[in-house]
Amino acid sequence: MKIYYTGLNNSELFCDEEGSVKQVIDKFTIVPFTGIDDLEIGWNYILLWRDKELFISGKINLNESTEVTDKIPVLLKLPEEMEGCVQAIPGKETITILSVKHEIWQYKVFDKMWKQVSNFIQAADDNSDQEYTVKIFQGGCTVALTNFGRVYNIPILVDMPKRVKFTDVACGFDHTIILAENGEVYSMGMGSRGQLGHGDLEDCDNPTIIEALAGLKVVQISAAGWHSAVVTDQGDLYTWGWNTEGQMGISDEGTKVYATPKPVDFMDTDGRAFDASVKKAQCGNAFTICMMDDNSMWGCGSNKYGQLGMSRDALTNSRTFLKLNTAIDEKEIKNFKCREWGAIIITD
After folding, report:
1. Alpha-carbon dihedral angle through residues 221, 116, 74, 145, given to the nearest 10 degrees
2. Measuring CA to CA, which residue among 116, 90, 85 is closest to residue 101?
3. Distance, CA of 248 to CA of 272 (rounded, Å)
4. pLDDT tens digits for range 217-271
5. CA distances (Å), origin 161, targets 52, 64, 158, 185
6. How far apart are the C-alpha atoms of 168 and 164, rounded to whole Å?
7. How many CA atoms are closer than 13 Å to the CA of 308, on its beta-carbon side?
8. Would strands 333-339 and 342-347 be described as parallel, antiparallel, or unpaired?
């Protein structure tokens, strides 16, 4: 397995010839740390997994001294009672971890201490089976999805629509979108930039169905910054929210906010529309990247920090999706992620 990174960089893993940290990586560059299984992107550091060990590389000092950390990622010692983690989220002040025992732990970066989050799950009236957290996501708040398909804005259970089971969740700066088992999409949070998809700019405290997507079966969701994206079972892409950098893939420069989901058209190099089949979409703070069914990678929005994997001199931003020159054999691409101001590609 190989992992490639592009975008804003504060990790000592990527340095220039003089040993100084390269603040911007504007092409997909292999992560020079052997044996890693996964990587998560934070604002000023990255998290790397190797077997059951979790490492940190970036502008975070985990040592007792005040000296700058070495260029080798630093091992983050997990509490013994955690017994390993299945998910970790790099926040600005805390690292939030979902353990193999379905417990949530937080590492306070500046205090250098661990704290287990108290059990917040309320007993379900109609089920005696054990309920536990299966996924966490963090934007302006920390959201948990349980095996019962319920969602918590930790520690509060959100007002669940009747007979609806949620299967996935994604968060932007201050909004959350949630995928239901039947393919419907709900959203809640702030709506000032149209990021809720309800056709207005109003806030919404509880999960509310996005009516514009009714009749479609959505199979994958993503959100970041102030925009969102979903993929249907037909391979169609819909986006909505703030479009200041073209992150929705819609070329109209006169409209900055789209409060209703819009289908996205893809153009070839000659400017002609073609029948694209999207397999997965991922939102960064002001950009979006998609993987097609042939594993080709397409991106739009801001390239200020090289997050599209293209030279900043050649491309500042794109209001339409462009095929990305990753210099990676598309047949070997296994997965990809976008978060904050960076993106990674994972290969076999």
Report:
1. -10
2. 85
3. 19
4. 999 999 999 999 999 999 999 999 999 999 999 987 788 999 999 999 999 888 8
5. 38, 49, 9, 12
6. 12
7. 31
8. antiparallel
Span between the terminal Cα atoms of the chain, in Å: 5
State if pTM tops 0.90. Answer: yes
Token digits of residue 283: 């939102």
Q: Which tokens sit at 55?
A: 């490492």
Contact 266, 321 (CB under 8 A): yes
Q: Tell me the two tokens of residue 299.
A: 């991106």
334/331 Cα distance (integer angstroms): 8
Integer Cα distance of 62 and 60 in angstroms: 6
Calculate mean pLDDT across residues 177-202. 97
Joined tokens for residue 332:
């070997």
CB 28 within 8 A of CB 326: yes
Per-residue 3-state assignment (H helix, E strand, C coil) for the chain: CEEEEEEECCCCCCECCCCCECCEEEEEEECCCCCCCEEEECCCEEEEEECCEEEEEECCCCCCCCCCCCCCCEEECCCHHHCCEEEEEECCCEEEEEECCCCEEEEECCCCEEEECCCCCCCCCCCCCCCCEEEEEECCCEEEEECCCCEEECCEECCCCCCCCEEEEEECCCEEEEEECCCCEEEEECCCCCCCCCCCCCCEEEEEECHHHCCCCEEEEEEECCEEEEEECCCCEEEEEECCCCCCCCCCCCCCEEEEEEECCEECCCCCEECCCEEEEEECCCEEEEEECCCCEEEEEECCCCCCCCCCCCCCEEEEEEECCCCCCHHHEEEEEEECCEEEEEEC
- The span from the CA of 61 to the CA of 66, in Å, is 7
